[in-house]
Each structure stands twice: as C-alpha cells, then as structure tokens.
Amino acid sequence: MSVLNPSVPKPDLYRFTMPVVAVLGAIFGFITGNIFGSPAIGLVLGAIIGAALAAGLDRITGMDRWKKIWGTAAVFAIAGLIAGGVGGLVGGTVVGVSMGWFTTWISSGKYRASVPSYYTAGQVLWHNTFLFICAFVFFFLIAPLFPVAWLSFNAEDFFTFTPEMLAFKAEGYSLKHYADFLGSDEWMVPLKNSLIIAPIATIISVSLGTLAAIGLSQSHVPGRQAIMAILISPMIVPLIISATGMFFFYAPLGNWLQANLGLNQAFVGYVKVILAHAVLGIPFVIITVTATLVGFDRSLTRAAANMGADPVTTFFRIQMPLILPGVISGGLFAFITSFDEVVVVLFVGSARQQTLPWQMFTGLREQISPTILAAATILVTISILLLTTVELLRRRSERLRGMSPG
C-alpha cells in the first residue's frame, strides 16, 4: 500500500502560510527594489505584499487553483505595466505566476502530498528544499541562453540591449542578423561543412559503437572492462589533449593518403575530421546501447538461433528493434557532439573544413558581429530539438522494457 499523502490537512494561515509566502515576496521585492535603486524598501514591501497575497487567496474559496494563479498574474502584470511599461508587464506576469503558484501550493498543503506520511517536518523541508535547489541549478544553467536568443533579434549591430528592445518596441527588433546568416557564404559554407561532417561521423559512431556495445555485453569477452574504459576514454580525457593526440596521428595519415593514394587534399581533410569526430561520438553510443542491453532478454536470440536464424538475421530481426531507442539516442548525442565541436576541428581540419562552431569562434576573435548570436540561437534550437527526441526515445525504451507504464 502506498505511504504517500494524497490528501493532507491545510496548514495554519498565520503561523505557516503567510510567513513562508512573505519570505518569497521579500526576495522578489528585493530584486525589484534593486532595479529601482531602493532594495530595502522593495524587501519590506515585497514581504507585506506576499503576506497579504497569502491571506487574500485563502479568503477566496470555491475558485479553481489555476484561476487563482492567473488572477494573481493579471494583478501583478497590470502593476508592472503601470510601473515599468511593457518590460514591467512581462516581469510582473512572471512574478505573478510564480507567487500565485507558490501561494496556492503552500496554502493547500500540496508540499506534503509527494512525500511519505511518516516524514517529519524537517524531512519534508529538506525534500522540498532539494527540489528547489535542483530547479535553481537548472535555471542558472539555461538562463544565459535567453539573453543570447533575445539579442539575436536586435535591430542594431550591438551586443547590448537597446532602449527600444527593453521597452519592447517593434523598431528595436529585426530579423536582419538571421538574414545575414542565411544569405552569406561566410556562414552558409561552414554550415554546409557541419551538415556534411556531422551525419557521416554519426553513422560511423553508431555502427562501431553499437557493435562494440553488443560485443562488450557478452560475459565471456576477456578484458571487457579494460576495453570499455579505453573506448569511453574520449569522454574523460580533456578535449585539448585528445585534439593534440589526434593531430599527431592524423597528420601523417593524411600525408600518406595524399602521397600513396593520390587523394585530394580537401577530401583528406574531411576524412580526418570525420574520423576524429567519430572517435568522440563512439563513447556516447556505447554507453546508451549498453544501458539498453541491460534489460534485453537474451533468451530471444537463443530462440532465434534454435529456429535456424543466422547471427546477422537475429541481430536485425530480433535485437535491433528492441535496442533501437538506445541506438538512436546514442546517435543523436554523437551528432550533437560533432555538430557543436570546435577544438578538434582547429587541430585536425583546415580552412576548407571550417565548421559552424569554428566560424563562430573565429568571428568572436576577429570581428564582433551579432550574426554570431543568430547562429548560436539556431544551434541551441537544434540541440533542444535533438535532446527532446532523446528524452522521448528514452521513455519509449523504458516502456518497451516494462520499466514504466505504457
């Protein structure tokens, strides 16, 4: 029987809800006060507004929780619009949603609903504090991406926010940096190189990494722990060291290919970069496929062999459909690694293999152009889409292995 608390008693308004919400209000008030140059006044007013909000929402009965949240957001948004224009409207909406959600969450006792009923007050406090710490860490990891994406729509050639942008005026925004990115060979050629190198490196990584994971999952393979450690070492060794080692390995190899096979210098450059990126991507494929193989029922392959299927047929008809989510996840990680990598390209590649991250790095050193922000936003968007795909595949893999409900 579950020991979680699906329903918990409502906490005391004056001794618990109001003081807790007042603390959050004081934090928001202190931040807002700093913007207007009066942090102390903002701290006090924030605490008073937080306590008043807790008392006011507690008096409103018979209203849905989300109606209370959006009603709070509307009040704060109007106040922000009056105090700071359109920028204040956006900030007020964010603060209002946060305050409304937190107040209803605290006042309804939902903070105890997800913990076992035998937890003490201290354990409940630590549980929820830990969740908030994780949320803040996540926020501070992704927060730097928002100014970059915001500035990429700047109508001026600046790396700073103009007054028009801060006031959310239409003349402060433009798509000209995206037009410069999409309409210039300076950026399109590196993008084309990235779209050539990353997919081929991903195919090599997936092919070799999947075979290595399947082989190392066999208990009779001698020294498989040592081999695994060597194969995933590119994830552990600092990238600058790996890049230096790859330079000394691939430079003679490229010279040999040109001298003995008569291959074109540009083609050899692509080969070197693709192989180097494949080496960086293989560990991701090995780890994801190995994790998928943990729940694989090996009696299926034995049954296929008893029915007369050869190993190749067994792999493609039995194993591959079941481990496919792990294979695709590893391939996506390998693609992201190759598409975003710059250090190895600087060591192994040449100007003809200039990738998009290389162009961005060079642009930051030699010419400061806001087009870099547009390129960065596009890269971030691609990475988010790919990681979302990875998460969906992970959940599908868990459902196939019976680790989560369908």
Question: Could you explain how this protein is built, in words?
Answer:
There is one protein chain. This protein is mainly α and 406 residues long. The chain folds into two domains: 131 residues, no CATH class; 223 residues, MetI-like fold. Helix 1 packs across helix 3. The model has no long low-confidence stretch (mean pLDDT 84).
Which SSEs are present, and which pair or pack?
Layout: H1 13-35, H2 39-59, H3 65-107, H4 121-142, H5 145-151, H6 163-166, H7 176-182, H8 185-216, H9 224-231, H10 233-236, H11 239-261, H12 265-293, H13 299-306, H14 311-340, H15 343-348, H16 356-366, H17 371-400
Helix pairs in contact: 1-2, 1-3, 2-3, 5-17, 7-17, 8-12, 8-14, 8-16, 11-12, 12-14, 13-14, 14-17
In short:
With 406 residues, this protein is an all-alpha fold. The protein is 76% helix and 0% strand. The protein folds into 2 domains: 13-143, no CATH class; 178-400, MetI-like (MetI-like fold).
What CATH calls the topology of the largest domain is: MetI-like fold
- CATH top level assignment of the largest domain: Mainly Alpha
Instruction: Compute the CA-based radius of gyration.
Output: 28 Å
Q: Give the DSSP E fraction (strand runs of 2 or more residues).
A: under 5%
Helix-strand category: mainly alpha
- Gross geometry: flat
Q: What is the count of helical runs?
A: 17
What is the total tally of β strands? Answer: 0
Question: What descriptors fit this protein?
Answer:
single chain; 406 residues; mainly alpha; MetI-like fold; 2 domains; 0% strand; flat
